[in-house]
């Protein structure tokens, strides 16, 4: 049976003040998923509750199984590479969790309990209706996380109990029951995405505009207007004809009338179904508040002095979605050059002076239609100051002939001209050519004694 999270439980958790009173002098922290630096990743941490000493391997396996379910759902599946996940094991004196209605009580580190607030499947830690002291539960979680995994965007307490149950708020709590992962995903929609519940069941709250809930009925004022087809009626009838489209369906934020949701069904309304397109888009925009389309670049300095012939390696490192690539575009002085992550620039193609290299990386996914903060795109730029030596001309007469061996070397990205003069005032071109690997060699007739020669860039 799927159990929808109760709003008043969540509101209670959201209203509680943050405290760090518990001791963080214990706990073993380890990576479950490591894809990159914490600064450019969404960071999750899973804590063990109701595991006794010697059950760390079991906790690792249980946490991995939970993550397999978590990252089987979009958009987490497609963007798994944007996440780091740490496990934090702390031993309890006894295994399992409290079931007060059945007379079962366990001595566990975070003092977790089913049957919270009179509901069998609401699994919580203090403060709750059984124990109002946060130092026995929530504060211990926060102290351990602060000590071992402070760079986190989502905290999950995994309870070593097979009974279905869980709860949301700043700390997500779930049991080992396979269905509990669905509850945690729904709650992650709140905690990560700032998404609203789409229930129509009455509950006394003051609804506010959210990415997936609105009181607006004018098409141009609906937050998800970009997803609504022109021929979709507004409000949208809750009929099978419109079950597969984004529209304006009445019933959201615990209001049966006057408030609307994007889709007939969504994980923010019913467990066991996908996130709708609007909620998926919002989650993805949140992912990109930390993850960026450009993670790092080479060269690291953005000003380069160029005086030699050695090629310059430019590289951009980008995250890797599961089934599509980040689009990369290099340009040199505004001219497109490459779409590969690594691009080599031959400085012999550049004239002396200042040049600009830019790279643009963007996630062209069609899962996002509105990106007001521009977070699905990033750029980097370099300024190149090219100061290369002038061309060098060497000539030597060929014995017994009217020819000379000519060698031109140096820097001429657009080729050179070999010129002749009798007075150093007027110069006449006698040959134009390009350099190969910075060099030109040939034998040329020299039939004008007393002439002077030079090579100049074109």
Please describe what this structure looks like:
With 458 residues, this protein is an alpha+beta fold. 13% of the residues lie in helices and 28% in strands. The strands form 6 sheets. A 6-stranded mixed sheet has the order 1-3-2-4-6-5, sandwiched between helices. Strands 10-16-15-12-13 form a 5-stranded mixed sheet, with no helix packed on it. A 3-stranded antiparallel sheet has the order 9-11-14, with no helix packed on it. It starts with 6 loop residues before the first helix and ends with a strand.
Structural class: alpha+beta
Strand content: 25-35%
Shape: elongated
Name the poorly predicted regions. Answer: 1-25
Biggest pleated sheet: 6 strands, mixed
Please give the alpha-carbon distance between the first and last residues.
79 Å
On the 0 to 100 scale, the average pLDDT is 91
What is CATH's topology name of the largest domain?
Collagenase (Catalytic Domain)
The largest beta-sheet arranges its strands as 1-3-2-4-6-5
Can you give keywords for this protein?
single chain; 458 residues; alpha+beta; Collagenase (Catalytic Domain); Immunoglobulin-like; six-stranded mixed sheet; five-stranded mixed sheet; 13% helix; disordered N terminus
């Amino acid at each position: 049976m799927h159990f929808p999270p109760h709003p008043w439980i969540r509101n209670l958790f959201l209203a509680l003040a943050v405290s760090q009173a518990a001791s963080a002098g214990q706990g073993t922290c380890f990576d479950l998923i490591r894809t990159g630096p914490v600064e450019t990743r969404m960071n999750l941490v899973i804590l063990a509750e109701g595991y006794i000493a010697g059950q760390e391997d079991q906790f690792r396996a249980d946490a991995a199984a939970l993550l397999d379910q978590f990252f089987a759902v979009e958009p987490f599946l497609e963007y798994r590479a944007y996440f780091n996940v740490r496990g934090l094991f702390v031993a309890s004196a006894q295994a399992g969790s409290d079931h007060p209605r059945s007379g079962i009580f366990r001595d566990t580190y975070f003092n977790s309990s089913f049957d919270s607030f009179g509901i069998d499947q609401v699994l919580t830690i203090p403060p709750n209706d059984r124990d109002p002291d946060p130092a026995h539960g929530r504060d211990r979680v926060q102290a351990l996380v602060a000590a071992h995994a402070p760079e986190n965007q989502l905290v999950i307490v995994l309870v070593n109990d097979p009974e279905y149950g869980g709860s949301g708020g700043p700390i997500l709590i779930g049991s080992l029951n396979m269905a509990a992962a669905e509850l945690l995903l729904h709650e992650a929609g709140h905690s990560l995405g700032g998404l609203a519940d789409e229930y129509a069941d009455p509950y006394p709250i003051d609804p506010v505009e959210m990415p997936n809930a609105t009181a607006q009925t004018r098409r141009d004022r609906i937050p998800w207007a970009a997803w609504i087809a022109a021929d979709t009626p507004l409000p949208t009838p809750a009929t099978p004809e419109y079950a597969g489209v984004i529209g304006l369906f009445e019933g959201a934020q615990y209001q049966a009338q006057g408030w609307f949701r994007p889709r007939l069904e969504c994980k923010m309304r019913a467990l066991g179904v996908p996130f709708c397109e609007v909620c998926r888009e919002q989650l993805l925009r949140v992912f990109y508040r930390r993850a960026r389309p450009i993670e790092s670049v080479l060269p690291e300095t953005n000003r380069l002095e160029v005086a030699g012939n050695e090629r310059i390696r430019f590289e951009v490192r980008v995250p890797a979605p599961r089934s599509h690539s980040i689009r990369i575009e290099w340009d040199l002085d505004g001219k497109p050059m490459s779409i590969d992550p690594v691009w080599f620039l031959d400085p012999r193609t550049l004239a002396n002076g200042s040049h600009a290299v830019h790279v643009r990386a963007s996630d062209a996914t069609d899962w996002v239609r509105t990106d007001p903060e521009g977070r699905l795109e990033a750029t980097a730029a370099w300024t190149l100051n090219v100061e290369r030596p002038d061309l060098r001309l060497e000539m030597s007469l060929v014995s017994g002939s009217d020819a000379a061996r000519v060698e031109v070397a140096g820097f001429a990205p657009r080729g050179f001209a070999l010129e002749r003069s009798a007075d150093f005032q007027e110069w006449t071109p006698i040959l134009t050519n390009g350099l190969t690997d910075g060099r030109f060699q040939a034998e040329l007739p020299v039939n004008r004694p007393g002439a002077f020669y030079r090579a100049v860039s074109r």
